[in-house]
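for the writeup, i need someone to sanity check this before i put it in the appendix. the sequnce is what the collaborator sent (i think, or maybe the updated version? ugh). structure was predicted straight from it, no edits. if anything looks off just tell me and ill rerun, i have time this weekend
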Amino acid sequence: MTHNIKRVVVTGTVGVGKTTLIRSISDIKTVDTERKATDETKLLKPNTTVSMDFGRIQINNSTVLHLFGTPGQSRFDFMWDLLISRANACILLVSANRPHESDRTRQIIDFINKRVQIPMVVGMTHADFPGALSAERIATNIGYGHGSNRPPFVTVNPTQSISIKKLLQVVLKQLTTKQQNQKPLRKISKYNLTNISKVNKVKNLSQVKFY
């Protein structure tokens, strides 16, 4: 069976939950490159991703998501280039209880927007922690206070598959909307007609099955 594969990059600052999210939802044993943290990162967690994380989840009989987690540290920016360049969508994780990371998050957004124009969904982690900010405050802090370019904001718990599936449903909706809004080519070859994305067949995202 031929699958329609969509590549989704999961990014954000150090310790925001990227590796945990992919491990919690992947159908396969995840591929990760965690190593012992040797810099200021060890204040947040003992290990850190130095290359990427990879997981896979089958949405339905025809659609598969490949999830790529980026390193959080800026010295591994070269991996962001490699991962973002071929991505179909991006999940930006933001810790709701760490507003001091807003500047770094804005840098990540700027990095992405200068390279690709793909759907983005902001996943707010640690929303139940003391001092957690609202979606409106977070949006303002990271540069999405006003304007029509604001992406969807979704609360997510990276340890709970049900919570992650709700986030992925929003990602799928963004991908479907983008495809529907694309202008059709004047001439459509027989090849293109037989390879139109099957994601468009998903009409009611609340009924999406995660196998």
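Residues 34-46, 185-203 have pLDDT under 50 and may be disordered. The chain is about 30% helix and 20% strand.
thx in advance!!
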